[in-house]
């Protein structure tokens, strides 16, 4: 791969040397036009969404919603993940991963397939004071929900009413909920939906452009199975990451558009299988090693748990996120992450 990069770079240098001054001038004009357009688009944006750092005309007071989303191959492509501000990807039983998708700045019409809760899913959702949505639960998660540790509705009680079964997929990969029904469920249970989560730490536009790190545009996160191993590819033109399960790109079911990401945070946590069903305990409290991928670059970080959130630190200070969408992969070992970097 490194030889291919060198060859591509050599071709680029030759082509660049052949550009005329006229072409250079044209590029400068286009760049100035784009800068002017960007300036106009940001005028009047006096606030930021708390979980993306993206500008908005007024402060958002909407409560975060956390939905457990199925990632079994028979559940792909999923609905609504393209509108999530933050997505946690974490192992359930065996080598199967599930998502805890956090929505605040955007409200997808339809979300799913929805899957069952685990106690550490609830822990992750609580960091945003989320309204928690799942369909089913482990015994430990059921106890937490019944104790009222987090506001929630569950498909076990609302299957066929708030939760609907799609006819183009088979159970347990066919449970969906609309955002309208999420709001309806909160009203039925008497839960407030008008308190926004605490904001994350974001880089300014200038800080994001000057971001340093080791070049790493393509990398893989291994979960021990080709069906669940994840590949991320950075597109420098879009300044976004694309996500793949193997060779299959992660897209939205309805729009068919790709999931585009700005931050990929990967954190190592100790995992332990605790029963014959393969359920796990995951240590989300002790902190540890990680990587933060942004703008086609990677930095080693240490993560800490603060107010039930996973926070990256670099050189003793909080590492800011690039404004936009964030995906957080939780892995048993940091060696599960592999990437090439130029020498």
Automatic annotation (TrEMBL):
Keywords for the protein's UniProt record, in alphabetical order: Signal
Signal sequence region: 1-21
Cytoplasm is among the record's keywords: no
Pfam family name, one: DUF3048
Disordered: annotated segments: 24-43
Residue ranges occupied by any DUF3048 domain in the UniProt entry: 51-191, 227-328
Annotated InterPro entries: DUF3048_C, DUF3048_N, YerB-like_sf
Protein name: Lipoprotein YerB
Gene source species: Mesobacillus stamsii
């Amino acid at each position: 791969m490194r030889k291919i990069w060198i060859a591509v770079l050599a071709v680029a240098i030759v082509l660049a040397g052949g550009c005329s001054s006229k072409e250079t001038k044209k590029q400068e004009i286009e760049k100035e036009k784009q800068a002017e357009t960007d300036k106009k688009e940001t005028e009047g944006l006096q606030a930021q969404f708390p979980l993306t750092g993206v500008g908005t005309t007024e402060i958002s007071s909407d409560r975060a919603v956390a939905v457990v989303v199925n990632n079994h191959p028979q559940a792909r492509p999923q609905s609504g993940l393209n509108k999530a501000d933050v997505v946690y990807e974490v192992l359930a039983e065996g080598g199967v991963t599930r998502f805890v998708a956090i929505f605040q700045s955007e409200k997808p019409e339809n979300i799913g397939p929805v899957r069952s809760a685990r106690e550490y899913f609830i822990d992750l959702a609580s960091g945003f004071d989320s309204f928690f949505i799942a369909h089913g639960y482990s015994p430990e998660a059921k106890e937490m929900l019944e104790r009222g540790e987090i506001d929630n509705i569950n498909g076990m009680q609302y299957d066929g009413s708030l939760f609907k079964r799609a006819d183009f997929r088979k159970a347990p990969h066919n449970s969906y909920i609309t955002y309208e029904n999420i709001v309806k469920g909160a009203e039925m249970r008497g839960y407030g939906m008008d308190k926004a989560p605490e904001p994350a730490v974001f880089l300014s536009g200038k800080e994001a452009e000057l971001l340093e790190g080791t070049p790493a545009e393509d990398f893989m996160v291994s979960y021990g199975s080709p069906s669940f191993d994840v590949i991320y590819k950075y597109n420098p033109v879009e300044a976004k990451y694309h996500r793949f399960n193997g060779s299959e790109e992660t897209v939205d079911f309805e729009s068919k558009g790709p999931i585009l990401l700005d931050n990929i945070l990967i954190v190592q946590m100790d995992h332990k299988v605790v029963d014959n069903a393969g359920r796990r305990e995951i240590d989300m409290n002790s902190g540890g090693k990680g990587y933060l991928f942004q703008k086609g670059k990677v930095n080693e970080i240490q993560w800490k748990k603060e107010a039930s959130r996973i926070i990256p630190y670099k050189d003793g200070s909080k590492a800011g996120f690039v404004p936009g969408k964030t995906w957080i992969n939780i892995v048993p070992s940091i060696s599960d992450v592999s990437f090439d970097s130029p020498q």
